[in-house]
Specification:
Length: 390
């Protein structure tokens, strides 16, 4: 089945070609429409005992079911949070503190999102946790044998992302989770980039905890969820009135939960209808056009096949990523480098993969999405080619 994109998004009209879907996605108008009643007429507290609570309570339950359906989970296993970073905090801190171990051991890997890496550092600093950071290979992938060697009887939790935000590299989660389970450790997976782009089934993956993020799949920012497998004990991230299974207190933001649920339903429809194949074809067309325009100078960063269908991370010999994008202002994309006091530093992700500083500083991430078109690809390839020549 050939999937066609929905009608043009009003936020993308007459602007630069948007190739930064991994940074954030435009809010789908259908998501905004579903939210609106809960910002106006359906304002009740879902925990109240009167009639104003009925609509919000029903909508909250439906949203939870929609997120669960996208992940192959049970409704009660979904905990709404305000961000992916908060969901990761609940998973990591929650598991470590609930374990009650004297010196709990946590394992992660070098190209994780800072929300995971910085939480691990905090657990070491504040709670005496032992932290092992696994290396990755030249494609950004973790070797399961390295995880097996790192696991000990003190290991409480392993946290490895499903897909890297810069290169799109897809980690072997099923194999890694099975190793953690064999050693009695919980397995957390940050699926912020993967959810909605590739099929995810928490039962098949064998994970205990999994993070999904709204603004990576066409919902607003500040909405996310953590899948918590039945039976997993976590220390709450927010204490109070017992909402969200007692793990994240605070009156529920029904409008944002509805947004995430609607986005999850639309993402499930897209996956069923071949949207990923359409986007992958556009990505590969863009890659080929750039290869033809820049013979011998273009390098792919990350796996050729084992990556997200929408992600293309490239370096061009002799060109720095930030200079390229500055010379092509009609393209909205990202580099992996960080700028500190006017000095650009190589991407930690690409550095961990063993890329030299010049190639890492030359990297540009081009990420496509729901409203990407053939015209976008043609235009972007031409603009990058001409900017490189200049």
């Amino acid at each position: 089945m050939i999937h066609t994109p929905p009608p043009a998004h009003p936020g993308l009209a007459d602007g630069p070609v948007y190739l930064d879907y991994n940074a954030t996605t435009p809010v789908d108008p259908r998501v905004a429409e579903a939210m609106l009643p809960h910002l106006t007429t359906l304002f009740g507290n879902p925990s109240s005992d009167h009639g104003y609570a009925i609509g919000p309570r029903k909508a909250l339950a439906e949203a939870r079911a929609q997120v669960a359906a996208l992940l192959g989970a049970r409704d009660a296993e979904i905990v709404f949070t305000s961000s992916g970073s908060e969901a990761n905090l609940l998973a990591l801190r929650g598991a470590v503190l609930a374990a009650g171990a004297g010196r709990p051991h946590v394992i992660t890997q070098a190209t994780e999102h800072p929300a995971v890496l910085q939480t691990c550092h905090a657990l070491r600093r504040l709670h005496g946790a032992q932290v092992t950071v696994l290396p990755v290979d030249g494609e950004g992938l973790v070797d399961p044998a390295a995880l097996e060697d790192a696991l000990t009887v003190e290991t409480v939790l392993v946290s490895v992302m499903a897909a890297n935000n810069e290169t799109g590299a897809l980690q072997p989660i099923t194999e890694l989770a099975a190793l953690a389970r064999e050693h009695g450790a919980l397995f957390h997976c940050d699926a912020a980039q993967a959810a909605g782009k590739v099929p995810i089934d928490v039962r098949e993956l064998g994970v205990d905890l999994l993070t999904v993020v709204g603004h990576k799949m066409y919902a607003p920012k500040a909405t996310a969820a953590l899948y918590v497998r039945d039976g997993v004990r976590l220390e709450p991230v927010v204490y109070g009135g017992g909402q969200e299974r007692g793990l994240r207190a605070g009156t529920e933001n029904v409008s944002l939960a509805v947004a995430l649920g609607t986005a999850a339903r639309l993402a499930a429809d897209d996956l069923a209808n071949g949207a990923s194949a359409r986007i992958a074809a556009l990505r590969d067309d863009l890659h080929q056009r750039l290869t033809d325009a820049l013979p011998g100078r273009l390098h792919l960063n990350g796996p050729v096949r084992q990556r997200l269908p929408n992600t293309l991370n490239i370096s061009i010999d002799g060109v720095r990523g930030h200079d390229l994008l500055a010379a092509a202002p009609l393209i909205a994309a990202s580099t992996g480098s960080a700028c500190h006091s006017g000095t650009h530093m190589p991407s930690p992700v690409l550095t961990a993969m063993g890329l030299d500083a010049d190639r890492a500083l030359g990297a540009v991430r081009l990420s496509l999405g729901r409203w990407s078109t053939e015209a976008d690809v043609t235009t972007a390839a031409a603009l990058i080619g001409s900017a490189t020549a200049r």
